[in-house]
Design goal:
By secondary structure, the protein is of the alpha+beta class. The protein is built from eleven helices and twelve strands. The strands form four sheets. Strands 1-8-11-4 form a four-stranded mixed β-sheet. A four-stranded mixed β-sheet has the order 6-5-7-12, sandwiched between helices. The protein has a two-stranded antiparallel ribbon with strand order 2-3.
Length: 351
C-alpha cells in the first residue's frame, strides 16, 4: 500500500496530530510481518517519510531527532496525543472513553506512579483578594487523594493475510482497536470492582443509592435527583455526566427536555436497569506514551473471552492453518477520582 500522493487521511489536524497514527503503527507491524521489513520501514513505504507521530510510536530515534524544533521531545508528546485520539475514536461505543475525552488526562510516560492532588471544594480552598504586603493563605493539597499507576490494557485481534496486505488494513485496525479498548475500559471503569494488581478501581465505590419506586417518568426524575443530591452532598460541581446502559440512556434522552445540558453516555457493559453520574472535574486519567504491538502468524489461539489454559479452551484455532495474523496490543492506562463520593450509582431502577 504505497501512496504516491497524500490522501485526506494522511493530512494531520491543525495541531500536527494524525488521529490514525496508532492504527498506522499497528498496521505497520502487520505489514512488516509479511514483508520482512522493520516496522518503521514498512510505515515509511505505506505512509511516507513525514509521518513523525507514527515513527515516534514505533520508537525510531532518527525520527525523534528530525522532529526536534524549539520544543524538546515534541514528537513524543504528539505520540501520546495519538494514543488519546484512539480513546476518542472509542467514545462512540464507550462511555468510559467519552469520560476520558472530557476530563483531565496526564502523561505517565515511564513513571511507575504519579500522585494526583485532591480537588479544592470549599471557600477555605479558594484564592483570596488581598492588598499588597498581606500574607497569602496556602492551600495544603492532599496528594494521597489519588494515585495513577499504569496498568496494561491488552487485546488480541486477528486479520486475514489478504486484509493485512490491502489498503483497508489501517481503517480496519483503527476501528477494531478502538472497539476492543473501549469495551475493556467500560467493563472495569463503570463498575464497583476494587483495585487489584492488574486493574484500577471502578468508579462506583460509594454504596449504591436506593432506586425510586413506582416506575415511569416520576421514578426516573426521582433517581436523577437522588444521584445529583448525593454528588452535591460531597461537594461535586456542575460538570457532571450521566452514564447508563443503552435502554436507560435511550429513555433518558427521549424523556428529558432538550434544555437538560448534562451529557448522557451509553455503555454496553453496564448492568441493565442502572444509572450512574460522574463529576468530570474530579476524574483524572493517565496514559503511557508507548503502545506495545506484537504480531504472530503461527500460533494457536484460544477463542474465548476468559481463557485460562489453551488446552482447556472450548475452541482453539490455528493462525497458521487459517492464514491469519494475530495482533497483540497493550496500552498503559490508569484513572482515579480526586475526591471520593464524586461518582454515584443506582442499581435496579424501576423505569
Amino acid at each position: 500500500m504505497s501512496r504516491p500522493f497524500p490522501l485526506p487521511s494522511d493530512v494531520a489536524n491543525g495541531r500536527g496530530i494524525n488521529p490514525a497514527a496508532l492504527a498506522r503503527a499497528a498496521s505497520a507491524h502487520l505489514r512488516s510481518f509479511l514483508t520482512g521489513q522493520a516496522p518503521i520501514d514498512a510505515a515509511k513505504s505505506m505512509y511516507g517519510e513525514r509521518d513523525l507521530v507514527t515513527a515516534e510510536l514505533l520508537k525510531t530515534k532518527a525520527a525523534t531527532g528530525a522532529a526536534t524544533t524549539q520544543q524538546a521531545n515534541w514528537a513524543r508528546e504528539l505520540a501520546r496525543t495519538a494514543v488519546l485520539a484512539t480513546i476518542q475514536d472509542a467514545a462512540s461505543i464507550s462511555a468510559g472513553a467519552a469520560i476520558i475525552s472530557r476530563s483531565l488526562s496526564l502523561d505517565l510516560g515511564a513513571l511507575a506512579q504519579l500522585s494526583v492532588p485532591s480537588r479544592p471544594l470549599t471557600s477555605n480552598d479558594a484564592a483570596k483578594f488581598l492588598a499588597e504586603g498581606q500574607p497569602i493563605p496556602v492551600r495544603n493539597f492532599n496528594f494521597a487523594a489519588g494515585t495513577l499507576r499504569p496498568f496494561g490494557l491488552k487485546t488480541i485481534t486477528t486479520y486475514s493475510r489478504e486484509l493485512a496486505q490491502s489498503s483497508s488494513i489501517e481503517a480496519t485496525v483503527r476501528q477494531t482497536l478502538a472497539e476492543s479498548f473501549g469495551l475493556g475500559l467500560d467493563a472495569v471503569m463503570l463498575s464497583s470492582s476494587a483495585a487489584s494488581g492488574s486493574q484500577p478501581a471502578g468508579l462506583f465505590q460509594s454504596a449504591p443509592i436506593t432506586p425510586t419506586t413506582g416506575g415511569g417518568v416520576a421514578a426516573m426524575l426521582g433517581d436523577i435527583e437522588a444521584l445529583y443530591g448525593a454528588l452535591a452532598q460531597n461537594g461535586a460541581g456542575a460538570n457532571v455526566a450521566i452514564v447508563a446502559p443503552l435502554p436507560q440512556a435511550a429513555v433518558l434522552r427521549a424523556q428529558l427536555s432538550p434544555l437538560f445540558s448534562w451529557p448522557i453516555f451509553a455503555s454496553s457493559t453496564m448492568a441493565l436497569k442502572s444509572i450512574g453520574a460522574v463529576d468530570l472535574t474530579s476524574f483524572v486519567s493517565g496514559f503511557g506514551t508507548e503502545v506495545q504491538f506484537e504480531v504472530s502468524g503461527a500460533t494457536a489461539l484460544a477463542m474465548d473471552t476468559a481463557p485460562a489454559d489453551i488446552s482447556g479452551a472450548p475452541l482453539v484455532k490455528s493462525a497458521y492453518q487459517l492464514e491469519m495474523l494475530a495482533l497483540r496490543a497493550t496500552m498503559f492506562i490508569s484513572w482515579t477520582m480526586r475526591v471520593s463520593g464524586h461518582a454515584q450509582l443506582i442499581s435496579g431502577v424501576t423505569w
